[in-house]
Amino acid sequence: MTPDLFFQYLFAGVTYGAIYAIVAIGFNIIYNTTGIINFAQGEFVMLGGMIAISLHQVMPLPLAITLAVALTMVIGAAIEIIFIRWLQSPSVLRLIIITIGVSILLREAALHIWGESIRSLPYFYGNEISSISLGSVHLSPQVLWVIAACGIMVAGLSLFFKYTPTGREMRACSANRTAAILCGISTRNMVTLSFMLSAGIGAVAGCVMSPITYTQYDSGTGLAIKGFTVAILGGLGNSMAAVAAGILLGIIEAFSVSVVPLAFQDAIAITILLAILFVKPHGLFGSSVAARLKDF
Amino acid sequence: MLKIRNLDAGYGKLRVLKNISLHVKAGEIVTMIGANGAGKTTLLHTIIGLVRASAGAIEFQQKEHTGSCAQKIVAAGCTLVPEGRQVFASMTVEENLILGGYMLQRREGKDAVLRELQYQYDLFPVLRERREQYAGTLSGGEQQMLAMGRSLMSRPRLVMMDEPSTGLAPLIVREIFKIITRLRDEGNTVLLVEQNATAALGIADRGYVLEVGKVILQGPAADLLANSDVQRAYLGREKIG
Ligand SMILES: Nc1ncnc2c1ncn2[C@@H]1O[C@H](COP(=O)(O)OP(=O)(O)OP(=O)(O)O)[C@@H](O)[C@H]1O
Ligand SMILES: [Mg+2]
Known about the structure:
- The structure holds 2 protein chains of 2 kinds.
- By secondary structure, chain A is mostly helical.
- Chain A has helices at 3-34, 41-56, 61-84, 92-114, 141-163, 165-175, 177-182, 187-213, 219-234, 239-256, 265-279, 288-292; strands at residues 132-134, 137-139.
- Chain A has one domain (3-115, 138-295): ABC transporter involved in vitamin B12 uptake, BtuC, CATH 1.10.3470.
- Chain A is 73% helix and 2% strand.
- In chain A, strands 1-2 form a two-stranded antiparallel sheet.
- In chain A, a hairpin with a 2-residue loop joins strand 1 and strand 2.
- In chain A, helix 5 crosses helix 6.
- Mean pLDDT of chain A is 88; it is low at 290-295.
- Chain B is built from 11 helices and 10 strands.
- Chain B has helices at 40-48, 70-76, 93-100, 102-108, 110-123, 125-129, 140-152, 170-185, 197-203, 221-226, 228-240, and strands at 2-11, 14-24, 29-34, 53-60, 63-64, 78-81, 158-162, 189-194, 206-211, 214-220.
- In chain B, strands 6-7-8-3-9-10 form a 6-stranded mixed sheet, sandwiched between helices.
- In chain B, strand 1 (2-11) and strand 2 form a beta hairpin.
- In chain B, helix 3 runs parallel beside helix 7 (140-152) and helix 4 (102-108) crosses helix 5.
- The longest helix of chain B has 16 residues, at 170-185.
- Classes of the chains: A mainly alpha, B alpha/beta.
- At the A-B interface, helix 6 and helix 7 of A face helix 2, helix 3 and helix 4 of B.
- The structure holds adenosine-5'-triphosphate and magnesium ion.
- Residues 11, 14, 16, 34, 36-42, 83, 195 of chain B line the site of adenosine-5'-triphosphate.
- Adenosine-5'-triphosphate is lined by residues 11, 14, 16, 34, 36-42, 83, 195 of chain B.
């Protein structure tokens, strides 16, 4: 493999990895406040992309994306308020089945609204054939958009959780729900907020990736599986580890293309992950102690 | 301050509390003693709104609070130091305390929280030393102090404590009880649930004895200490255990 090709694969891997990481962080945020896996996480990504594409037909791109993210956040909050908030101490299994139901609902709604056609947002800068050269490596400018957007979201989230009162209250809610209630914190509002946040970052990812990966009514499903695998690989609930795990998965996938046919790409990645999980059930970066001290 | 009349509560079909009546007046330490499974924790959880009462009435500060959610009761000035401490293990000592001041912050703003934080550090100097440490890595005694400090951060009118002495060395237990006494002397009101009957009755003004969900004895702490039934059931066993 030539060094150029190597870097080409590497950047492709990091790009996809960044997206997987964002989806995984979406899983983690909701997992940390509720203890459940929200299987509709991939649909948030799809909705963000689809809504932005539709809005872009009548308004400039930045406005369309902003509105799409805001709308997806409203949808995320609405889902929590309609399907989850009013339940009296529901079991984890019941909650998970609800989120699976919601994901099917959103997918079908998207099919109904947008049909089966494959769509995409235009490139934020330049077009399909424009490229930026880093030394001898040629990159699509959109790749940098994806990496930058994901990086900013990760940094922003960790600042939010660490330094803002609301972030602190959300962490409290995840560290010890009963104690958070005893402090007077409304854990229900925190759960709604976690759905909004997850939907929001999912929608941003859905927008920045759309020019490269295209968007279709069911494009959330595959992403959810990858994101879920990454979340597990990093150790559920641990977002910084999810970033590392996401990029690792992206890179493994990218390089597997040079060894095996493209059709096996997904299978290879998942197989490697299963193998790692078999050896380290708490994830690559997790220990059983860390698993108990879950954090954002 | 707190008045409970004919309270029934439980979990699903299981009736744990049967016809409980008790009251706590401002400025006193009232203790509730009882064996494992008597329903002490259930009682405190019902008062704070974590468990729903099926009958009876809870009145706090002349206001009806039966069936209110925890947030309302905490806002009204009643807090609970839960059994087993329940600190936010993955957060620092200072973050734990600031979270305890959540209601104070909403009522009086950020400066009040910072002032109260200093006050709690004065009351529990060890917490000041450890303020950057993760709560999960504190010793049992330190965690208990943190749980108490966190509860006090909202400047409650009534603090309820669920077995603060469990699992602690005698020296630490003495220190904790000293702090509880000091809280009362500074004008706070405390409802103290304990299995350590000697220590609890030693500092309390009045006491209740709970047995399988019923109040079987009540009165001034000194009388209960002298009561032969209490001595046999709760004080005698302590010497062995
Ligand atoms: N969440 C729950 N669901 C069902 N039953 C419960 C629950 N919590 C407590 N119980 C039952 O209620 C009864 C009283 O329990 P409670 O915890 O109030 O006792 P306690 O007096 O606090 O005991 P200890 O001194 O051991 O803390 C017990 O029989 C217990 O099994
Ligand atoms: Mg108890």
